[in-house]
Amino acid sequence: MHNPTLKKWIRTSTLPAPIIVSFIVILLFYFFKKRSSNMIKTKKAPEVVGAWPVIGHLNLLSVPKPAYIVLGELADQYGPAFSIQFGMHPILVVSSWELVKACFTTNDKFFSSRLVNKAIKYMFYDQKTISFAPHGPYWRELRKMITLNLLSNERLKMLKHQRISEMDACLKKLYELSTKRKDENAGVLVDMSKWFGDISFNVVTRIVAGKHIFGPKTERYKNVMEEARCLMDVMVFSDVMPYLGWLDRLRGVDSEIKRTAKELDSVLESWVDEHRQKRVSIAAGIGRIVNITEEEEIDFIDIMLSIIAKNKLPGDDPGTLIKAIVQEMYLAAWDNTTVTLTWALCLLLNNKQVLKRAQCELDAQVGKERQVEDSDINTLPYIQAIVKESMRLYPPGPIIERETTEDCDVGGFRIPAGTRLWINLWKLQRDPNVWPNDPQEFQPERFLNGHADIDMKGQHFELIPFGSGRRMCPGVSFSLQVMHLVLARIIHGFELKTPTDADIDMSTTLGMISWKATPLEVLLTPRFPSVFYM
Ligand code: HEM
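Above: inputs. Below: predicted complex with protoporphyrin IX containing FE.
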């Protein structure tokens, strides 16, 4: 080559061999890294061994232990994400906050459907309710309607009088009961799980259906709802293995579900009719055809009838929708509130120093002259910490269920569409990596110190008893208002003791709601003179 410029160009543009080699090595490194990460992404979640043909892992869950405990033990073996086969259905079981975050943030839209089983189909109006409507425009409209009109802070303020007056009446009755003791120092034995059930039912009934004095219809509704609750825990073959549906008919489960659904519907129908007639008579009485005013809309049924009148209720069958929403409010509010309050009191009775400290906080902040009010709750951090700690250890629904509608990736695992998702709160909320000081122990103090900023509004994935993401519980504020106040009033107003020195039995039932398996019997003695309770 004679051209010197060209020679120089070639010399400077030719890279030395070591640089070329390094370049190739780096390229190969990135190529293999990307390939291996793609391979991880397409990995399946570990599958629990021992699936039987047809029934899958149903045998593992048919032991006399709650499912969330069995699944927690499997998580110790298989890690925080594993899959099982529930009859015909694949289930992904998740129990770490990092994976839950992945489910409820980046993948939330894929996991926004819920399962509908036979009991729900018949007793809860199929997919008409918010909880069970498929993710889509109808659900969106319904949820907006509920959060704006029934469960907004404004509405809860308007309904405060009804809520408090029901609580006052129940507490007054409890006080009267507690004075029926034979001996001044003895205390009266009260089944507090039943009492929590009654107060929750009464508050919901007042707010949803406006009923203050219960007649035979309300009693009937209560009894049938209790039957409905039991039926929801019965294993229905057609839900897991559709081809065995004939066994349900043979066992009489089908007809029992349909009978219960019919009874519930007839009470609800009569409540809605009563409300319709009331509106007609009010309108006629004062000579106007317009809607009832806000002040007269004293319960959820009234409010929904008003929305119908404005033609703003989603769907094409507003009458059925009202019944479905009423039914759903009972299902969501009654059981969850009762269960949470029951466990909170059990934990307090087994941890007397916490109970004492809570009473001291109440005496210091509220005094001894009057009962606790809503406005006191913000000044009672220890009571709030007790509720959080109880819901951490005993979430009323220990497993949150969802279903994916599309293929997605969770923590590097490929999850095919149609997989059910079970979030095991029981395991997740006791994770020693998150709660280092004895995660199994009841220590409300952890919410005053290290975990003080954690709330239960779905953004702190280590504590999500109300769920998270777009299908999170819309009743959080309402239930916390009720639970804080009821618990604070009980602790403030009464000395609470167990009938024997033994600890309270903490065993739970086997269904999807973690009820206390045995009654919670407590010796009550009023702490103050009668005028305090009136
Ligand atoms: C201690 C009380 C309560 C607890 C622990 C609780 C818990 C939950 C949980 C875990 C979910 C599922 C969330 C998810 O999938 O991420 C849920 C959904 C729901 N809850 Fe609650 N709940 C309570 C009280 C209430 C109350 C008082 C109401 C209404 C008055 C209510 C209405 C609902 C509704 C409508 C849904 C379905 C939301 C949807 O699918 O869009 N809940 N609740």
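Confidence is low (pLDDT under 50) at residues 1-15, 34-40, 292-296.
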